[in-house]
Amino acid sequence: MFVPRVDGELPSLGQQVGAHIEHYLGITLTDEQARRLLRLYQVDPKSGARIIRRAGLRAPKGKGKSPEGGYVAFAELTGPVVFDRWENGRPVGHRHPFPWIQMAAVSKDQTDNMAVWLFEVLREREEDLADLKIDLGRTRIYLKDRAGRIEQVTAEAGSREGQPITFAALDQTESWKRANGGIRLAATLRRNAAKTGGWTYELQNAPGPADGSVADLTSRAWSRGQGGVLFDTVEPSKIPELDDRPALIEALAEVYGEAVDRKWVNLERLADECVDADTSPSEAYRYYLNISMPAEEAAFDIDLWNELQADFKVPDGELITVGFDGARFHDTTGFVGTHVESGYQWVIDVWERPPNVADWEVPEAEVNEVLEAVQDRWDVWRVYADPPYWETAIDRWAGTWENVHPWWTNRSKPMAYALKAYVSAMRSKELSHDDDPRFTEHIRNARRKEAPQAKDDEGRPLWTIRKEAPDSPLKIDLAMAGCLSWEARGDALAAGATQKRRSAYAERGLEIV
Fold first, then answer.
1. How far apart are CA 329 and CA 324, in angstroms?
2. Which of 30, 253, 422, 510 has its CA 20 to 30 A from that of 93?
3. Which residues are CB-contacts of 379 (< 8 A; sequence separation ≥ 6)?
4. Is the same domain home to 101 and 214?
């Protein structure tokens, strides 16, 4: 039974784990790092069972996140991380009998942040580690006397489902998104760790607010009070203006803490990076001041978008409009519908290139079938379809249905005005939408691109939307389809469109499942 020495104390193996790390790796933990180990290795006061199953550390660049992931992985391989017994009212740990540790990231380069540091330390201290019986492989670390290893894994390597890992360190989870396989990999690692009673530890820079990354989701899980989740972050008490040098230095000192005393960082040098012409203000706040900030070029207010979610199902036969956008091989392709009466939008269907599949093409036959079903199910006033890559198909659709119209999104002025109306509808809350995460992700990914030929009523330039970069895996096609669908709805209202027919499904007496 645990006997607390001070009021509020929780039992933890963290002190033993910290001593093991310092002894074998020859490092001295900061007070902040030592306190964090106490929280990470808390155990139940009665059973001794591990409490934390999912943890996240958000810290600025250069504060030692990657080394922390490395030394915790080392402790999980060789240290007293599993509860053994109570001794004088204190928990005592032992080594894991079959440790399987993974250092994970969405790319190989990112996993090297932790692995290279740990490999170098272990090689330098190989003689001091003899009793631990560690075998340093080229890309993995093994135990010689029993089953046990540390390995690097990435989202690029495909599925890891079912591997009985005991611990995973997830690096740079602010970049783990659904589009690059990060969301899937994180979920897989957590499931695998759950099978063995293990846990996962995220190391992250500040993400964009509500950006849907793994980093964002973990902080939100913690803020909701989910059991077994620990989140650690230090942010400045006052957000400084970047051109106020004294305030900037003071804020940097606050977030870097003991890293300044250890001379891991130079505050003046960090301040120079924050105001460098090639560092955007968003990057300065996120990477150096540890503050979640939106990208300056975000096309849509994602917090507002999330507020517009609604639980609604468009009845069969109702008057709707449809937007279509996409490519053939790489970008996502999909249909977004808008209920003319209510302004509710939803993803009708979407096609995405499967992860780790290079040779793939959107199945045109399926796209045709979906559009045919939509035409039968609802009274479709207009389908606005962006022609690139689909010119022949759209011509065929237009020959079949009079309501299909090509709508070229590369026309900057009409596109800018369509987007202006789309944003206005969000702000006025005239628009609502389903909770499809793909739709939300594409809205979030959209970036502004100035359209010099298009001006608002006050003479200010309007904008169209683009991807973060031409080769970015972060798609925006559903955002474009949503805008086209909304533009069609506006044209329907302006034309005084009314419902003209019942659903073909209803006419045939078919039930919609």
1. 16
2. 30
3. 317, 318, 319, 320, 499, 500, 501, 502, 503
4. yes
Kindly give the interhelix angle for 245-256 and 267-274, rounded to the nearest 10 degrees: 120
Which residues have C-beta within 8 Å of that of residue 315, sequence separation ≥ 6? none
pLDDT tens column, 369-407:
999 999 999 999 999 999 999 999 999 999 999 999 999
Contact between 298 and 310 under an 8 Å Cβ cutoff? The reply is no
Token code pair at residue 49: 């069972």
Which tokens belong to 119?
Answer: 């490999």
What interhelical angle do 108-124 and 65-78 show, nearest 10?
60
Chain CA centroid to CA 340, Å: 33
The structure's pTM equals 0.67
Secondary structure of residue 512 in the 3-state scheme? coil
The answer on 216 and 117 residing in a single domain is yes
Query: Parallel, antiparallel, or unpaired for β 82-87 and 319-325?
Result: unpaired
Beta strands 379-385; 141-143: pairing state: unpaired
Radius of gyration for the chain, computed over Cα atoms and rounded to the nearest angstrom: 27
Q: Do 255 and 355 belong together in one domain?
A: no
Pick the closest to residue 317 from 257, 248, 374, 238 (CA basis): 374
Residues 416 and 496 in one domain: yes
Structural domain count, the chain: 3
Strands (E), 236-290: none
3-state SS, 84-117, equals EEEECCEEEEECCCCCEEEEEECCHHHHHHHHHH
The pLDDT score that the predictor gives to residue 509 is 47
> Is 227 inside any structural domain?
yes
Cβ pair 190, 54 in contact under 8 A? yes
DSSP state of 284: I
| Cα 323 from Cα 308, distance rounded (Å) | 19
Instruction: For residues 260 and 364, state if they share a domain.
Output: no
How many Cβ atoms are within 10 Å of 285's Cβ, its own excluded? Answer: 23
* 99 neighbors 167 (Cβ within 8 angstroms): yes
Sites in the chain below the pLDDT cut of 70? 1-8, 156-159, 295-296, 452-461, 471, 501-513
User: What is the DSSP secondary structure assignment for residue 447, as one 8-state letter?
Assistant: E
Which DSSP category does 206 fall into? -
Beta bridge partners of 274: none
List beta partners, residue 398: none
Residue 7 in domain: no
* Extended beta strands in 258-403, E state: 319-325, 333-339, 344-351, 379-385
Contact 261, 64 (CB under 8 A): no
